[in-house]
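Ticket #4471: structure output looks truncated?

Reporter: J.K.
Steps to reproduce: submitted the chain below (71 residues) through the standard prediction queue, then opened the result file.
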Amino acid sequence: FDSNYLQEDRIEIPVQINGKLRGLISAPLNIQMEDLLDLAQKDDKIAKYLLDKEIKKKIYVPKKMLNLVVI
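Returned output as attached by the reporter:
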């Protein structure tokens, strides 16, 4: 029995915009906020909510969620 085979190397991170769930991003386990933000902006479901908007605040709980406040 080798427990290394049970560890996952990717996780699903929910992305909220103004407190509402807008999508899930599959990302490496130890991704940094800026890299996750780049992935979110490239995702079609999430990008449409960011179009022509300014990101006022970014809240990232590592391995849990990303919340963006836009105006």
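Triage note (M.O.): checked the attachment and the full token line is present. The first helix runs from residue 33 to 42.
Status: closed, working as intended.
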